[in-house]
């Protein structure tokens, strides 16, 4: 019987889980985090399944593993592991990982208060504020984000024909705004949104197959997330979302890559200017502050460089074993 032990630190970012694997992550081959991600998916995906799925995880579980940087100017590299696979970039995961990394001494940045982090989607620059041993907030400046397509249509068996845009913020998002068939996410429970999203994501990736491929990294492709929008809870919030990811998750945080995609969409449509706060509210009402930091291009297409600010709290130290003799060693989903 083989047994592997993983020393983890558990936290949540604005309500959504983050599990950092402190010890037990595998050595990976590759010069970039994108190549290391491919190596992990090929040979070590059992670790992700064992630590993310039930009984050791749950539908929303999300985590990361730290690696030495490829470029010595940077502080570290990160691999995101989720129920859905290994995302190229994860905003709530970044805010949680930085909070854990700094508070637990796993990251010692070259410049205190600033971190340069290599992700599979590219370099992410981070600022954070610390009081004593606690990290108060984390601000990440994300990869280039852009509106990829507008006014596409798809048939939902529950809601009828829906019009949506697709926008990239580190992952590709189908953004579904209120329209004739629904007035917003406030109409639906999280489980209903999951049910609609499961069908829609599959249909979108069939109908628009090969349409969404990152112009600089072809391993990043297809719509992986659905971002539904609706009426804000707080009068101070700019917008509210419910982001579907994995197979059965609605993000409890406002979703960092989703907020980036949403800001790219609004900016491209003239609804959001550079430097203006975009207060994004999650399904449970927690908030991130987004901002368009720079207007730029990505392979000739208009794009933005967004920032996202949020907070995370550590709640547990968790030593987890995966034993071959456990019938559920590699998790299950119901
Ligand atoms: O915050 O980018 C994010 C994210 C992706 C999936 C869940 N959260």
From TrEMBL:
<comment type="similarity">
    <text>Belongs to the proline racemase family.</text>
</comment>
<protein>
    <submittedName>
        <fullName>Hydroxyproline-2-epimerase</fullName>
    </submittedName>
</protein>
<dbReference type="Pfam" id="PF05544">
    <property type="entry name" value="Pro_racemase"/>
</dbReference>
<dbReference type="InterPro" id="IPR008794">
    <property type="entry name" value="Pro_racemase_fam"/>
</dbReference>
């Amino acid at each position: 019987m083989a047994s592997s032990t993983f020393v983890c630190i558990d936290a949540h970012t604005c309500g959504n889980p983050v599990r950092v694997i402190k010890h037990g992550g595998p050595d990976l081959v590759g010069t970039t985090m994108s190549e290391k991600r491919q190596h992990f998916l090929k040979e070590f995906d059992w670790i992700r399944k064992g630590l993310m799925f039930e009984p050791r995880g749950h539908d929303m579980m999300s985590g990361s593993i730290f690696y030495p940087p490829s470029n010595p100017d940077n502080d570290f590299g990160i691999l995101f592991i989720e129920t859905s696979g290994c995302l190229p970039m994860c905003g709530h995961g970044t805010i949680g990982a930085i909070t854990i990394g700094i508070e637990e001494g796993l990251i010692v940045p070259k410049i205190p208060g600033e971190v340069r982090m290599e992700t599979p989607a590219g370099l992410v620059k981070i600022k954070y504020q610390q009081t004593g041993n606690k990290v108060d907030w984390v601000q990440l400046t994300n990869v280039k984000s852009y509106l990829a397509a507008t006014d596409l249509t798809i048939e939902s068996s529950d809601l009828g024909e829906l019009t949506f845009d697709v926008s990239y913020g580190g992952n590709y998002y189908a953004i579904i705004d209120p329209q004739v068939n629904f007035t917003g996410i406030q109409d639906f429970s999280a489980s209903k949104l999951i049910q609609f999203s499961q069908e829609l994501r599959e249909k979108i990736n069939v109908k628009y197959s090969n349409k969404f491929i990152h112009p600089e990294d072809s391993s990043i492709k297809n719509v992986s997330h659905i971002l539904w929008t609706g009426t804000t809870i707080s009068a101070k919030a700019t917008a509210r979302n419910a982001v579907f990811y994995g197979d059965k998750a609605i993000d409890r945080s406002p979703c960092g890559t989703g907020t980036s995609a949403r800001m790219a969409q609004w900016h491209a449509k003239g609804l959001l200017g550079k430097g203006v706060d975009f207060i994004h509210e999650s399904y449970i009402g927690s908030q991130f502050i987004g901002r368009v930091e720079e207007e730029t291009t990505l392979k000739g297409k208009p794009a933005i460089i967004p920032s996202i600010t949020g907070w995370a709290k550590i709640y547990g130290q968790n030593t987890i074993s995966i034993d071959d003799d456990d019938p559920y060693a590699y998790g299950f989903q119901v």
